């Protein structure tokens, strides 16, 4: 299924099920978020490939995440404090920029069903449990789904201090178990330890 949606290019990578907290102050994005909330429509979030978050339209990476606004406050005039939830991966099949520098894209939703976490990646479940204890409930949307490879890989990738390029490369992988395979290389099993 394809449809045209507004795109919010950011210096961040979000996965389905993930939580994005962002301060929105540029008029084009304040208007976009307001329109999306009023019509209960999603928008896309993509890592910036070229350009900056502020000013002229940035070129987004072609794979990103569909998001829905979960919460929005305006504590200061013209500034929105937005919390959005990733709902699915998307591919941009062509973009164009409006006069106000808002990027619109023909968006294709990329299917991703639940895939069980292979036993060999049990260590990653324990790593994420420790990370979630440290970051607290404000950094993610419960409930935890430690048995879902996509959810596990997404939360690890979002919450660990990984380079944005690696996070984007993981988002672009269609197979959630392949994402876990890459992440597992970052946490080798200690000598004499179990996988």
Describe the structure.
Helices cover 29% and strands 34% of the residues. The protein is an alpha+beta fold and 195 residues long. The chain folds into 2 domains: 2-110, LON domain-like (Archaeosine Trna-guanine Transglycosylase, Chain: A, domain 4), CATH 2.30.130.40; 119-184, Orthogonal Bundle (LON domain-like fold). It has a 5-stranded mixed β-barrel. The longest helix has 14 residues, at 122-135.
Summarize the helices and strands and which ones pair or pack:
Blueprint: E1 2-10, E2 19-24, H1 27-39, E3 43-50, E4 59-60, E5 63-76, E6 79-97, E7 103-110, H2 122-135, H3 149-159, H4 164-172, H5 176-184
Parallel strand pairs: 1-3
Antiparallel strand pairs: 1-7, 2-6, 3-4, 3-5, 5-6, 6-7
Helix pairs in contact: 2-3, 3-5
Provide mean pLDDT, rounded: 93
Largest sheet: 5 strands, mixed, barrel
Q: Percent helix among the residues?
A: 25-40%
How many β-strands, per DSSP?
7
The name of the CATH topology of the largest domain is Archaeosine Trna-guanine Transglycosylase, Chain: A, domain 4
Low-confidence stretches: none
Helix and strand content put the structural class at alpha+beta
Count the helices. How many? 5
Taking Cα atoms only, what radius of gyration do you get, to the nearest Å?
Answer: 17 Å
The CATH architecture of the largest domain would be Roll
* Portion in beta strands: 25-35%
Q: What is the chains' assembly state?
A: single chain
The CATH class of the largest domain turns out to be: Mainly Beta
Gross morphology: globular
Query: What number of structural domains do the residues give?
Result: 2
């Amino acid at each position: 299924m394809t449809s045209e949606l507004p795109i919010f290019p950011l210096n961040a990578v979000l996965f389905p099920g993930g939580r994005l907290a962002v301060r929105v102050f540029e008029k084009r994005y304040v208007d976009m978020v307001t329109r999306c909330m009023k019509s209960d429509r999603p928008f896309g979030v993509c890592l910036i490939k070229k350009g900056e978050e502020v000013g002229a339209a940035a070129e987004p990476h072609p794979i990103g995440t569909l998001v829905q606004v979960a919460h929005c406050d305006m504590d200061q005039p013209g500034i929105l404090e937005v919390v959005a939830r990733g709902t699915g991966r998307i591919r941009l099949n062509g973009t164009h920029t409006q006069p106000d520098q808002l990027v619109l894209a023909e968006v294709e939703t990329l299917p991703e069903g639940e895939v069980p976490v292979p036993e060999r990646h049990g260590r990653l479940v324990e790593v994420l449990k420790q990370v979630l204890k440290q970051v607290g409930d404000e950094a993610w949307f419960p409930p935890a789904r430690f048995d879902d490879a996509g959810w596990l890989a997404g939360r690890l990738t979002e919450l660990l201090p990984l380079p944005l390029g690696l996070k984007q490369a993981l988002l672009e992988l269609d197979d959630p178990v392949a994402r876990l395979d890459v992440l597992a290389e970052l946490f080798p099993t200690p000598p004499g330890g179990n996988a």
